[in-house]
Model the fold of this input.
Amino acid sequence: MNAIPVNAENKYEVLVDCNWREALKEIAKSRTRVGIVVSASLRERLGDISLGDCDVHLFEIIDGEGSKSAENLQLMWDWLGAGGFTRSDVLVAVGGGATTDVAGFAAATWLRGIDWIAVPTTLAGMVDASVGGKTGMNSSFGKNLIGAFHSPSAVLIDCEWLSTLSDRDFSAGMGEVVKCGFIADAKILEIVENNSLAEIRSSRALTTELIERSVRVKASVVSEDFKESFAREILNYGHTLGHAVELHSNYCLRHGEAVSIGMVFAAELAAATGHLSDEIVARHRRILVSLNLPTSYARDAWAQLLPLLYLDKKSRGRQLRFVGISDIGKTFRLEEVSTQELTQTYERISQ
Ligand SMILES: NC(=O)c1ccc[n+]([C@@H]2O[C@H](COP(=O)([O-])OP(=O)(O)OC[C@H]3O[C@@H](n4cnc5c(N)ncnc54)[C@H](O)[C@@H]3O)[C@@H](O)[C@H]2O)c1
Ligand SMILES: [Zn+2]
Done:
């Protein structure tokens, strides 16, 4: 097990490849009350949830994106109230990114903030959603529009969870892993190039190394820039077009799949504007295809995608802002791209 420090508004550690139950027992020793929020389909896998002398409360939450709603928050606040949760108590979120986002937000808002611990159970949750302190929920106007920065007090990554994850969700999580490779850690890309997807999935050592490297990338970026100026923006590599296709697909695409398409677009755009070699663009496609991730999107979607690009949080006024790379691990801000360049680049990634 390795402990990766994060120095955000509070300091905490991400324990990679730990036994989450043992780690939680240790943490619970200093608490009187622990609230566990668990994704419904994982409830049975929790088994016995007693934690020594602790008073343990359980809240089962519906699976996936639908849980990030005002109705669910109301139910969680009522549960916390009925359980008499105080500022010295702790909430534990067990589930994918949707569960850690919404339970983290409940922790951020109850009594203006109580401690919470993330136990991510998907690959995307382990390498991305649970680290970084962003918590939130959806509004009827869009995804993640309501939220708060509220770092967990620990992140417990137990790779055992991954055994039941669908192949599709594993690949989608790998999209965020290779993103960390492109923006900061060439070794991630080498590992993915030298091992097949099946080899990575079946090897605990390889999976753990990839998770650890990705968490290190995110932890170092977040430690440098907690509340998102440019340093943190690099984590958005591939996300400008990615968010647009995710929304356009009506969330039929997984986030990591949409980011995969977005990274190919960002690479093509950097090449078209003279910043990146064709070889690295080809490397994007080779790696992403080897992970069973999509690298193109419907040609006739462009007219609807272009306005969606302007909803990106990085855009300023009428100015779109992309994260580009000029080499592996070298990021820059890609601005002042004409609509014509965008359209031509989209033609290269669409079919
Ligand atoms: N806070 C952040 O910084 C941040 C970053 C990235 C993504 N997110 C959020 O994370 C969410 C996406 O996360 P996700 O991809 O983990 O999706 P998810 O939480 O919706 O989980 C996907 C599905 O996998 C199931 N599942 C979870 N663990 C499992 C396991 N071990 N075995 C089998 N099935 C399992 C879930 O029940 C769900 O049906 C989105 O809501 C996104 O907005 C947040
Ligand atoms: Zn992402």
